Amino acid sequence: MQWHLGFFKYDYTPTKRGFDSFLGYWLGAGDYWDHSESEPDGWGLDLRNNTKVYIGMEHRWNKLLLKKIVLSVWTYFTLYDII
Prior knowledge:
By secondary structure, the protein is of the alpha+beta class. It is built from one helix and five strands, in the order E-E-E-E-E-H. It has one domain (10-79). The protein starts with 22 loop residues before the first strand and ends with a helix.
């Protein structure tokens, strides 16, 4: 859920380093309610869906959001007998 291996360039992000997908934070900490991050030079949303900011998820608790996503991925994999 957190990526601590750098994102100086897109080549250093999770999906460019071998992962098929990524949902989480690129920065070291994120608010679990509004998915924001405050740094000395600014504030912004940091919940990422692959390389894009996951907009529209503000005010959704991380635990519930992740549960919904995990269940949808699990359903897809079991439906198509991938597992």
